[in-house]
Amino acid sequence: MELLRRGFQSLVQIHSKLIHKYYQHLYRKRKLRTFLMGVGSLYLLRRLSQLAMTLTPSLRRNLLGIYGEESWAIVTGVSDGIGKEFCIQLAKQKFNIAIIGRNAKQMDQLCLQLQGFGVQTKFIVADFNQGYEVDFYNKIYEQLHYLDISILVNNARVLETGQFEQTKMEDSFSMLRVNALSTLMMTKILINKLQNRIKKAAVITISSGLAYLPSPLVSVYSGTSAFTNYFTQSLSFTSQKIDFLSATPLSVKSKMDNTKDPDIIETSEFVRNVINDLREGKTHSFGSCRHRRQINFLLWRKQSVRNKARILLGNSIRGAQLETGRQEEVQQ
Ligand SMILES: NC(=O)c1ccc[n+]([C@@H]2O[C@H](COP(=O)([O-])OP(=O)(O)OC[C@H]3O[C@@H](n4cnc5c(N)ncnc54)[C@H](OP(=O)(O)O)[C@@H]3O)[C@@H](O)[C@H]2O)c1
């Protein structure tokens, strides 16, 4: 009888434990559901506000309002592609434009085109490959110091590809000077001026996705991309008055990119997205959702998968550069 009583007791205990567990489970499920619904609605709200911003430009914060009317944007490397597009989109927003590059004739023509948007322009001839000494940058500053500069776009780059041990030493030096040193020194000479403005200022650096996916055959370029990306993003932590933004796209249509990449994005789309990200106060931009998804996807994959993608990327950039070289030879 005692045995039966104990057996019955333990059955009752098991039953009440099961019921307790069941209610716990329901409670957790409800909590999880509430939590997921909360996250979902926040995400939806964010997407809807982004959509509203895209569809109604008047809702966006006016860039000139943030950085100051009559102010100047300085853009480096403007003969074509991304640099030229930055000049056009910023001039359309009524920033005066000062450009820095090697080719006076091309810059003169671009200035005429930009004046069509009703803004003032200026060009400075400078070959960043000659920027060995501080004096080189001081001379650039002397030509800019009287302007009310609000935006600096570090864009000039050279890309040389190939097996590192077979590349020319001068090409590696050139990539360091034009890609990395020019970004560092242009920011250095202008930072106090930007910091001391009444209105805010911005520094946009065009790095590349290789900053996150260093690849073979473009090892020096990958290194300079990582440098400019890290340099710009790290400055954003200490600066209250300057908005620093680093952009790390994959393929963007331009003379430098001759890939058959189906995920290549238009130059105008890239520049528009970077400017929108700056306006939203971001310190980093992939320049497109597609490139953000691709890079993030690879960064979360196993190392072997990531390495395969990096080898493909390096080979594709190398192939594209050889193709550009061949086309230029045919044209000459
Ligand atoms: N296109 C892409 O797929 C892609 C992808 C990722 C990142 N990016 C980045 O986007 C930026 C622009 O690329 P892009 O495709 O527009 O290239 P691009 O058309 O070749 O533009 C590069 C610019 O830099 C200038 N430059 C080169 N060497 C110079 C020097 N020594 N001194 C002064 N200026 C010099 C070039 O002027 P010259 O005409 O005088 O050579 C040109 O205006 C680069 O920073 C690149 O790393 C591009």
Automatic annotation (TrEMBL):
Q: Where does the record locate the signal sequence feature?
A: none
Q: Name one GO molecular function term.
A: oxidoreductase activity
Domain of life of the organism encoding this protein = Eukaryota
Q: Tell me which UniProt keywords the record has, alphabetically.
A: Oxidoreductase
Alphabetized Pfam families for the sequence: adh_short (PF00106)
Describe the family membership recorded for this protein in Swiss-Prot or TrEMBL.
Belongs to the short-chain dehydrogenases/reductases (SDR) family.
Name the chain's protein.
Steroid dehydrogenase
Species for this entry: Paramecium tetraurelia
